[in-house]
Amino acid sequence: MSTMVKTEEQRAWDIASTVCDPEIPVLTIEDLGILRGVQVTPAAATGTHDGGPASIAVEVTITPTYSGCPAMDAIGDDLRKAFEREGYASVHVNLVLSPAWTTDWMTESGKAKLEEYGIAPPSGMAAAGGHSGPVRLSLAVKCPQCNSLNTKELTRFGSTSCKALFVCHDCKEPFDYFKVL
Question: Which fold has domain 3-95?
Answer without folding.
Answer: GMP Synthetase; Chain A, domain 3 (3.30.300)
